[in-house]
Amino acid sequence: MTATKGIEAVTERIRERSRALREAYLERVDEAASKGPHRSVLSCGNLAHGFAACAPGDKAALAGDEVPNLGIITSYNDMLSAHQPFEDYPKLIKQAAHEAGGVAQVAGGVPAMCDGVTQGQPGMELSLFSRDVIAMATAVGLSHNMFDAAVYLGICDKIVPGLTIAAFTFGHIPAIFIPAGPMTTGLPNDEKARVRQLYAEGKVGREELLEAESKSYHGPGTCTFYGTANSNQMLMEIMGLHIPGASFVNPNTPLRDALTREAVKRALSITGLGNEFTPVGRMIDEKSIVNAVVGLNATGGSTNHTMHLVAMARAAGIHITWEDISDISDQVPLLARVYPNGLADVNHFHAAGGLGFLIRELLDAGLLHEDVRTVWGDGLRSYAIEPKLGEDGSVIREPAPAKSGNEKVLARYPKAFQPTGGLRVLRGNMGKAIIKTSAVKPEKRVVEAPAIVFHAQEELQAAFKAGELDRDFVAIIRFQGPKANGMPELHKLTPVLGLLQDRGYHVALVTDGRMSGASGKVPAAIHVTPEALDGGPIGRVQTGDMVRLDAEKGTLEILVDQAEFETRPLAQADLSGNSFGMGRELFEGFRKLASRADEGAAVF
């Protein structure tokens, strides 16, 4: 089925806007690909350095140009649950490569930090910029020019976008992303949130809070709520960068290992040495990017991807905007309810039919482009499946179930949870912002109340503890953008604002910072751009000004005399404390170079 006229119109708009950028990109991809297997251009000294540590058999294989060499880029570390399973992947990948007649080498490692560890801490100010560091670190690993294809081991928040930017930059070689999967279900996410709120009220202590958090985040794999990490996996699959069915299989299971082995063999089969050469820069196009935006909206995915997708697409010569994301949201219904958009976690989503079911529903409704290239070699319909383990240990793919296993978690298209997607762009005299509507009840989506202005999240928390926030208000937290302090997530404010909302107050958040994929039940206008430090109107708001946030109409307005508002001086803030500690000294250049949030918040 072809895409609807509305989806096709947005796609064509992106195609026209991107034409010059995309043509220049594809010329570079084709020129690099035309040089053939890249070890052939290395001198003997270069090549000897490249395989010096290999086993004799691999040395002999790499000495010629007829055996494909697979580069592994890994984000392994054993502190973070999502990345710990990658410890044994290189051994498994090398074994699978040998079985397929190829060789695999670890080309490089990239950093992987966890926003869950750094929430509310100085290290969070490195988080967003770590995406670009990861892209650059990947480039260093692949710059040795030894590889016919690459596999990327990454899963969490900034890691996958950074790896994707690098993969598209090296668009002349095939790329497959290999995930590790989500941890098994622990303490329900709503119970975890309840304990957090009780802690904010002072009704339970740190011991009870830590016990709840430890029961929720309890083993290897990604966190089970639908934040940026699991949105990443959805995007990789719906863009055709995973093999079908790979996203949400738990770590350390036979099926997980079978999917990994299969991904390796597939990567080796799509190099320039065979008949199915699939350079990722040619494979991914405007339709693939639109499919990613459709999936993000249909699942109520992470707000972070309103920046990441812009930066990822740009690396492939494709220029998308927040308006594209918003226009697609108007056409795409919400088909999944996974926490914080509902009570279920990603394991429940997978059990109900998962991505295969969702992709099938969206394809049948004409909301996805079916005629795209994927690493699997055919269109997107081949991803409308359910993966299972065969008796011989191989992967079996069956058609996605006709019915949802749980209609409260995963809906058929005719029974969508809401008619529009989970993300929306707000516009008004305060600039542009993003809001995640899928977790906010309809009756809470419009807030008109006086502003209370803060320059740090700690100021709001202090005001709450002092009893100053028991009223209707819109919290304005500014000087939190990329140029100011690296745009940290402000997710630690969620329990406080949620508690005030539960007490019956009309509350909302407006910030040039981030709230992440875990944005919850309180309406939050985030990524406000231009940011305060960049001269944005948010810098003119004063405590007491009436602010109206209307997520239904898509507006964000300060209700004061416009002429008077525009002549107000911009607020100033002492940001010297952001320039040192926990490595922030090393990122001063990034803060100066960072683009606006709606341009991807990138430094290159």
Describe this structure in words.
The protein has 604 residues and is an alpha/beta fold. It folds into 2 domains: 353 residues, no CATH class; 177 residues, IlvD/EDD C-terminal domain-like (Glucose Oxidase, domain 1), CATH 3.50.30.80. The strands form 3 sheets. Strands 7-8-12-11-10-9-13-14 form an 8-stranded mixed sheet. The protein is globular. The mean pLDDT is 94.
* Count of individual helical segments: 22
* Helical amount: 25-40%
Radius of gyration: 24 Å
Shape: globular
Oligomer: single chain
Beta-strand content bin? 5-15%
What distance separates the N and C termini? 38 Å
Largest sheet properties: 8 strands, mixed
Q: Can you tell me the residue ranges where pLDDT is under 50 for at least 5 consecutive residues? A: none
Instruction: Provide the domain count.
Output: 2
pLDDT average, as an integer?
A: 94
- SSE class: alpha/beta
The number of distinct β-strands equals 14
**Major sheet: arrangement of strands:** 7-8-12-11-10-9-13-14
Which features does this protein show?
globular, 14 strands, Glucose Oxidase, domain 1, four-stranded parallel β-sheet, 38% helix, eight-stranded mixed β-sheet, 22 helices, 2 domains, 604 residues, alpha/beta
Structural topology:
Elements: H1 5-33, H2 44-51, H3 56-63, E1 69-74, H4 89-99, E2 103-109, H5 115-118, H6 127-142, E3 149-153, H7 159-169, E4 175-178, H8 189-201, H9 206-216, H10 228-238, H11 254-269, H12 280-283, H13 286-298, H14 305-315, H15 322-331, H16 346-351, H17 354-364, E5 385-389, E6 395-399, E7 423-428, E8 431-436, E9 446-454, H18 457-465, E10 473-477, H19 482-485, H20 494-502, E11 507-511, E12 524-529, E13 546-550, E14 555-558, H21 562-567, H22 588-593
Parallel strand pairs: 1-2, 1-3, 3-4, 9-10, 10-11, 11-12
Antiparallel strand pairs: 5-6, 7-8, 8-12, 9-13, 13-14
Function: Catalyzes the dehydration of 6-phospho-D-gluconate to 2-dehydro-3-deoxy-6-phospho-D-gluconate.
Catalytic activity: 6-phospho-D-gluconate = 2-dehydro-3-deoxy-6-phospho-D-gluconate + H2O
Pfam family, one: ILV_EDD_C
